[in-house]
Amino acid sequence: MVIGVSESKTLENKRYQINIKSWKLSKNMINQIKKILPILAVAITLICHLFIEDSGQQKKTSQPYFTYFLITVLVIYAVLYIISFFNKKIDKKIIYKGGFYAGVIFFLNILNIITLKYAFLPKLFFPSLDRVLGTLVEDRIFLLECIVYSLKLLFKGFVCGGIVGFITGILLGFSKTAGYWLNPVTRILGPIPTTAWVPLALSTFPTSYSASVFLIAFAVWFPTALMTSSGIHNTSNAYFEVSRTLGASTLYQVFKVGIPNAMPNIFLGIFYGTCSSFITLMTAEMVGSSCGIGWYINWQKQMMVYPGVYAGLIIIAVICTTILTLLFKVRDRILVWQKGVIKW
Fold first, then answer.
1. CA distances from 230 to 23, 102, 220, 263, 269 (A)
2. Torsion angle of alpha carbons 342, 226, 322, 218, nearest 10°?
3. Is residue 157 a contact partner of residue 216, using CB atoms and an 8 Å limit?
């Protein structure tokens, strides 16, 4: 009887170990499939692009840019795929992102088939990917000048608006007198959309460039001020009372108690202001500028050159994503004690 129970437990343990092994094996197979998916997607897209005949309605480009793009993506991913066998961090990342990368490539494949191969959509408004990528390559010098111009404009407006918004938020949070005068102004002027100020700014400021800086600064000022003051107001009074009891001065309470506690809110205000500043930047450049990505998109639209419009949109998406990613990195570094707590 005792031997029977022991054998039963042994068999159960063996079955459990076999199940664990088979589960690990199937999980490993699924992970390998996820890693290979982007390679398969690029291969299928290349086959479709090379072997399905063009409709002939799209303008031919001087070089097969989409083919070059796919080969570049394939080479980069293949290198990462090889490295993943030696680097666990990259391995986890491409397992997690493999499905997404494959989805993006399949989307481009479908888009290429719709626009270039069968021309289901109006060719004027929906150019082929070859033409869009060709614009990015052939106009790269001019586009680079536009990017530099836009970044300079964005930086000046963002810094001015961020500093003024930060100071306004601190005054609203700590000073009742400042709050008495500034609160009504903030509540009245802040909710007005920045684009509504465009006509007034263009007629008030001496140049369209200075007017654009003002508009971007205004777009950043309100969310930064609002979230900074909100963060300070939400600071527990116990912190201030303890610091006062220990003999802390007013400046110490501001810089060592109020502002550190309000940092998560301040970053939220900066993120909101960043998004608003992008919208304002595009609007300001489209209305009263002679350079910049927003101006380039508007110019290409007026010339009915839609590959340039899409190229400009791609550049904006890349710039916005890069800046927001950098902001998240800065936030995680400064607020390391709250990493993962703040969701945005």
1. 50, 43, 16, 11, 10
2. 180
3. yes
Cα atoms in the 13 Å half-sphere on the side-chain side of 116: 26
Answer yes or no: are the C-beta atoms of 228 and 165 closer than 8 Å.
yes
For the record, the structure tokens of 41 come out as 């997607």
Q: Report d(CA 240, CA 288) in Å as an integer.
A: 48
Residue matched to tokens 């800086």: 213
Helix residue spans in 85-236 (DSSP H):
88-112, 129-138, 140-174, 176-189, 198-204, 208-233
Q: What is the DSSP string of 39-58?
A: HHHHHHHHHHHHHSPP-S-S
Compute the distance between CA of residue 325 and CA of residue 308 in angstroms, rounded to an integer. 26
d(CA 220, CA 161): 5
Cβ atoms of residues 64 and 133 within 8 Å? no
pLDDT (tens digit per residue) in 288-313: 777 888 889 988 988 888 999 999 99
Q: Which helix (H) or strand (E) holds 234?
A: none
Nearest CA-CA partner of 300 in 321, 315, 278: 315
pLDDT (tens digit per residue) in 68-108: 999 999 999 999 999 988 888 888 888 898 899 999 999 99
Q: What are phi and psi of 252, to 5 degrees?
A: -65, -40
Question: Rounded to 10 degrees, what is the CA torsion of 219, 221, 224, 228?
Answer: -160
- What distance, in Å, lies between the first and last C-alpha atoms of the chain? 62
Tokens representing 254 are 């501001």
Q: How big, in percent rounded to 5, are the helix, strand and coil portions of the chain? A: 85, 0, 15
The Cα–Cα gap between 33 and 38 comes to: 9
Helix count (H) and strand count (E) of the chain? 13, 0
Residue 239 has a CB neighbour count (10 Å cut-off) of: 15
